[in-house]
């Protein structure tokens, strides 16, 4: 696996899975008789490793997944070896999770004490379920409506459906020209007779827009007994690492609940997200569940009754793996400052690319202003095309854009992670770039990094920017 990490750039970003490999997975015979670990490991090498999503590759520009890091991979190995069960008690994983959560409380401007709670989860989808469940507990026996912008991530609707919140209580609010929730429309939509769960997003999946979080906090503060402010910071909240980017999130620290991912921009390996809840007592009372004699705790030893934190009282799971180590090792190794620096660089790269696109107004346009690392590009020539032609055009473009090894554009372009946003007329494409190649945009981008290219034409990665790669 060390070779795998070392050679990451020598491999294609993504390669199609041959029919025989798919066939091998379709084989349903039970492995009744065991085989040697080497044989099993060799199968991993031939069946699994070559056909990953590719998001660990520096040239993977599609969608929004994070790349992980080598220190995170090491943490996963240690975690698996320890195989600890992180439900609670006197054990290192609990103390470590508490420490990591206290770092995030500080980073996000939440109270760094026991009045405020949190838990590491698999991602923002689960974090959203937790936040919604806690808010519903607070508004117990009262009608609660959920208000969210049309650009809000679909995990909110899924959470609402799971919690049996009826459709007529889900109120989608339009967005303004910056793709932020329209505050005036929101104010007009709020039902004065009901409680409300107001959702703001710090970096939407579609355009990277950050809602006016200060405006949302003011609105919720004006009726704090009836309105709960939840912020979905899956994508963007960790940019608070950067003192330059942090002001974009002013107001985030006033939320009642904040969900965010560590497996995206923070480079922690999948899966890892976090939920912070301002009212820790309410959080615990929503999930604590001591039914069953096997859960009765003895005071002393591993399982004290008082004074310690049992994470199973704050989320959906009793048996939980140790997520804190990969977060802890990532933060200790790279530090918030350097991680913030990488994010700043990603943003600069996106801005630079958007500027290059502006130089080709007849062929390309950005649908949304670049915000963070995401923006949508539109191939103007196809504006009038029918849906079918449209789809065909983009397939052609995608094919043009990927060389026969699956590599994107230009080898000299460094890690422009999370750079392109897909989503053109709601079609999903593997890679969502448009004709930039023919327009020599890559060459221009490459030019910017020429100084970092060695005599063999290989890009020299600056280790200050790309830790562990
Ligand atoms: C803004 C936003 N919210 C929520 C989610 C869901 O997060 P997860 O996939 O970590 O559950 C995503 C995922 O891309 C997202 O972009």
Specify Rg, calculated over alpha carbons: 24 Å
Order of helices and strands: HHHHHEHEHEHEHEEEHHEEHH
Q: Kindly report the CATH topology of the largest domain.
A: Aspartate Aminotransferase, domain 2
Mean of residue pLDDT values: 79
Strand content: 5-15%
Tally of separate helices: 13
Describe the structure.
The radius of gyration is 24 Å and the shape is globular. Helix 7 links the parallel strand 2 and strand 3. It has a 7-stranded mixed β-sheet with strand order 1-7-6-5-4-2-3, with helices on both faces. A two-stranded antiparallel sheet has the order 8-9. It is built from 13 helices and 9 strands. The chain has 3 domains: 66 residues, no CATH class; 239 residues, Aspartate Aminotransferase, domain 2 (3-Layer(aba) Sandwich); 115 residues. The C terminus is likely disordered. Helix 5 runs parallel beside helix 11, helix 6 crosses helix 7 and helix 6 crosses helix 10. By secondary structure, it is of the alpha/beta class. The site of pyridoxal-5'-phosphate (PLP) has 14 residues, from helix 6.
